[in-house]
Design brief:
This protein is mainly alpha-helical. It is built from 20 helices and four strands. A hairpin with a 3-residue loop joins β3 and β4. About 50% of the residues are buried.
Amino acid sequence: MTAARIPTAWLIVAAAIAWLALAVAFALPGRTMDWGRDLFVFFGQINALEHGQVPYRDFRTSMGALPFYLPWFGYRIGGGFGGALEIGGLLATALLLPCIVVALRGRFRLPMALTLLLCLAALAAAPVDLGLLLPSHVGFYNRWACAALAALFLFAVPPRQAGNPVGESAAVAGLLLFLFFVKASYFAVGFAFVIGFGAVLGLFRRVALIGAGAGAAVVLALQATTGLIDDYLAELAHSFNVSGVSWYAREKFLMARLPSSAGYYGALAVACFFAAIGKANLCWRHWAFVFYAVLACLAIQGHDASFHGPFALIAPLALLGERAGKEAGRAARWRPLLACLLVLFMLPYLAAATRTAFDYRDDGLSPSQLPRMANTYVEDLSRGDLERASCWHCLFYVADELPSGLRLLEENGVGDSVLGLDYYNYFPAFLDVPPLPGRLAVLMPGRTLDRSTAPAPAVLFQHARHVMVPRESNKDRTLLRTLYGEHLRLSYRLLDSNDYWALWERKRP
């Protein structure tokens, strides 16, 4: 084995070990750790896929297909909802690791390459909220996309040795396709980087052009064979027409998240300062990339109200660290400091991921009290769990509101054809029955529907024999009651109710 290939071999071995360690930590327990209400959307889509429905054709979503299919494969592999998202995360990590190894090969010294590899693998697989560093699956698709985007950004680092253009082009194509089928906003950022910095500015022109072309060929082939790409683009257009760019900064969510990510931007600012005074071997295109990465991360935070975006800054940090040590002299003196900054940048997340692995065994989730969902959710939410939860409303929903609704359905013998007039129709997944047909959208006013684009009552209620209406009010539920309340009163009768839900049954003709 030649000296040039030793780092690649080490990276392949390290990738395999990291994936196996993550599998032992998060997949083998067979449990799902989260309190986020969004999680039920993906349980509902797993249920839809399990009953033969297809994204875009049978149910509406502006998300890519991977956040649904990978957890569904996890559901099939694990034999239930418990651990489905964990296994899905490991499958996503398995798709990303070959591309990450190719991106790292020949660009970094082995210690930094191994550190970056571990960090990106943990980011994709470990269910941790980056802002609060708590166990959470909320926005798990953002973690996947951020890991892929960070790996794609690594191609801005000039290689230290001749690479394999075919392998690197395949990695770029794979990362772009992964982003395309996970979330369009991250794909837009990654595609602009590949075209702008790779092709136009020439940081990796040949690789960028071949990779982008190969990715486009795969998308066109899928369109020709399935026709679903048109449906996907139509759903993206529908979501954009309803929500626009949807900057959460308008609701001050971004300002609440910026302080928690200030350390990431601060670390990059310090690295830029030392790289500048150390006269690191950087050209204006590299500095332009650093500026682009910062703007991209701010845009992601503003769009998603997410903590995950700043994690893509590991790529410009790694660039500064490597170029500072590229040549001997003043610049090389700062390389240890920049390497330490990179490690400190990732240390809190890696520590939180390690803690989460132990949480699974200490006070994680035992078999669920919810009907027909063994090994899935919470049996006893203690006060300790309550204090650790990042969202009281989500915890309340899981502990009280949703189980109360399922009990109401069970008491009245309802086992099919039920519609939840809520953020999403979760009940078929928990009852293990086919979801209602009709391409129903996630009922989220301002994001998936508004007054002009809401489904007509005849469409929404067409196959629903029973309707569950939550008693608690918020802006989403209030709008849904305004839109559909009259139809509900005319076509249904109140069958039963409890403290949280009202159960309506279709009137007989």
